[in-house]
Structure prediction request, 619 residues.
Amino acid sequence: MLEIKNLHVSVGGKAILNGLTLRIDAGEVHAIMGPNGSGKSTLSYVLAGRAGYDITEGSILYNGEDLAAMAPEVRAAKGVFLAMQYPVEIPGVTTMTFLKTALNAQRRARGEPEMDAIGVLKSVRKKAATLNVSEEMLKRALNVGFSGGEKKRLEILQMALFEPKLAILDETDSGLDIDALRLVAEGVNALRSPERAMLVITHYQRLLDYIVPDRIHVLSAGRIIKEGGKELALELEAKGYEQIVKDAA
Amino acid sequence: MSSATARILPERRAEALARWNARGLPTRRIEEWKYSDLKAALGEAGVGAVVAEWLIGDLPFGIELFDLSQPDPPDWVLAQFGARADNAMSDASLALSAGGVALRVPAGFAPDAPLKLDFTGPGHVRALLVLEAGAALTLVEGAGAADFRNVGFEIVVGEGASLNHVRLSPAAPEAILVEEIGLTLAARALYTAHFANFGAKLSRVELEIALQGEGAAAHLSGVSVLKNDHADVTTHVIHAVGNTQSTQLFRHVAGGRSRAVYQGKVTVAKGADGADSRQTAKALLLGEAAEADLKPELEILADDVKCAHGAAVGDLDTDSLFYLRARGIPEAEARRLLLHAFLEDAIAEIADPHRATVRDAVNAALEGVA
Prediction:
């Protein structure tokens, strides 16, 4: 589904990713772990199509298509979803209006019929209940005044609503207490499916206790320096990034 | 001048004409006109002496109407008409127009239906609206395009009376539309107003609001959505006595080579303790050549007052834009959504059912701007 080859990315002229190679197939959950500044967020933003991230070398293929050539909204319509580390607050747009606008924009782009307000509301309500997203949150301006946990829950609610093919979760565990983390992880696990690939980006092993990945990649200085199964998370936790980086060198 | 002019309040008109002849057109050297070059916009055509028209669809039952072009005005017109004498363009409409309308809402009367008043055609026109004590009214003011129109509007809000004013100025890229509104508010009078402006070659509304009685309050809000046009809102709120309140909330979106102006002066008179005033104005500039001039200003002569003001000019937030696009919303739609959200603060100030009217007009205008 996703095939990244020798990816080099610069931000403001500074090289952040330096030859990253990664392949994720449908049905798989991969984790990228790495210390601060290793390029984790850069990778997530490049995949989602944020401006200011220049691909200087390498390629990203998504279902055989050149992902980098697509506008962010085209990627979303084709099933790429990024659960952001810092969801943006947008005063003046209610959460419900946003969800409906986004859902129908994606459907329109795929040539599917738009859903009416009641249809969207029903669909959102069903998913909101399991993620403990209240009716009141849906009426409020998007992310405005939401706690860290509420913001992350809303990200996962969007993921459940949009049913992406490739979901990228950027530091979804940051700022969550253990109860919130469990709730979010349950939401994510419920979306695991043979048709869907997930890329979980995290600094800590903690999240991977709840979302158990098929593969773990360790990112350092913009490159994958070590790969392994789920047990690699425990090794990282025990040894720390510094030792793993040294071992790999 | 028509014969009617000669019969109605000839002295006030003659005085206004003398002042107008002495002062002439306001220039950019006058602070209130710094960002609206009326002289340049008018060119050789000048202000003329044509009488512009007014239109009232259905006059709500109980409101008294007097056509200012008719002889023998009633006492309430004689008492209030042309009382203001310190504004050049207001003088011009008083001196040069024989037409206009005067309206009175009797004491304690509150019509259910709004009063719809439109100004149309080129030239000058006057209006007078008197709300007697305890009266309540919603006034919906509209404007047709014209090469040049100058409206001089006097509004008197009596003790405990309440006026809700919604003014819609549609996009008129060829028009020069100016209006001077002078209001006085008695004790406990309430004035709520929204000014939605979609731009003209030159579009300017100037409000002078005198809070003359304790407990009087004025709440102003407004939006302008400009494709390639000009819109100027200039306000002067005078807290003449204490325990008066004023709020102002304006949002502008300026595209192309537009110019959005907000000048808001608040004066708190000596001894007007307990006055409370807030002003905020924000503008988003969409075009490289777009300009916003936001100038809140305070003049405080009293000791114990609460006054705050702020202004900010910016561009659309790129993080927000990316977030929406990453959720599948195409760029143009995402921009419109954010612009609407930016304006919604001010739109939310409007009382129903006119909030929806303004919102629809704003959304339609954003189609052309974003």
